[in-house]
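REVIEWER CHECKLIST
Item 1: Sequence provided? yes
Item 2: Single chain? yes
Item 3: Sequence as submitted:
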Amino acid sequence: MKRNSKLILELKKVVSLALGFFLLFLVSAGAVGCGKQEEGIPTGTAVYYLNKDQDSLLARSYDPVATETSDQIEELLGKLYETPDNVELHRVLNEGVEVTNYELSGNQLSLTFNEEYLKLDSMKEILTRAAVVKTLTSIPGVLRVTINVEGEPLTDALGNTIGAMTNDTFVLNPGEQINSFQEAVVTLYFSNLEGDGLVMETQQVHYSSNISMEKLIIERLLAGPLSENAKSAIPPGTQVLSVTAADNVCYVNFDDAFRNQDYEVQEAVVIYSIVDSLLTLDDINKVQIMINGDTSGTYRGRFPLSTQYEKDLSLVEQ
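Item 4: Structure as written out by the authors:
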């Protein structure tokens, strides 16, 4: 991309600021040629590689030969070990770091690495983990990935279990560097196992500077708790369509799966799992929940979607 810097500077002199940023994006998305797929992030099945300096990830679209999900998992794991033809790319998994087992249960994939994985330095480990998760969750039918090492759950620097990761756990922009990843401790409220109360849990998470804390919290609520005495309050299969904040109000937009009537969690627990978790943020005072952008009607006949809800910790177990 260095060879394009002078061209970008000249373009910015003669075009508007908005157009200049647009062209800069196009250049950064296409500076590293690799056949059909440019440096932009693919929307379908993809394989993630280290860039030339091995401090960022690049994605390449990939059409699996296999048709079954389990076979596609094995195929893409193999691609992560392959040395790419493009000299600008480096494989993510090196010899020595081996996947000794994997198991798909529902839409969650559990990977087990050998102990060599623990020898990766912190920067390489985050990039490796991001590449593995984003590659495998690009397979239809795989939504979450957990990582174990020699049968033990992967933990962070503080010894906390990292737990299930989704495609959005690591959000990458074209050309984004590892320094864009940040760490934060978030406070979340999950349902207890009976579905009639809330359990508070703190998690240390890695996140990208281009994902808001509001969306990060919703994604962690969907992913579920680390502890065994709690579960996600949000109905299974729910997808978050958008999370925005304005004037100290957070607007969370879910798809129709949020209306699930058969889930054994009380309505108030679902609502206040979301509300109380988001209101741990200093700049959020109220939360409004939408379904496909609609704020009419009620949630399970009890909670009006038009209401902007405030914190209520009465359901939290001590």
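Item 5: Key structural point noted by reviewer: The radius of gyration is 21 Å.
Item 6: Recommendation: ____
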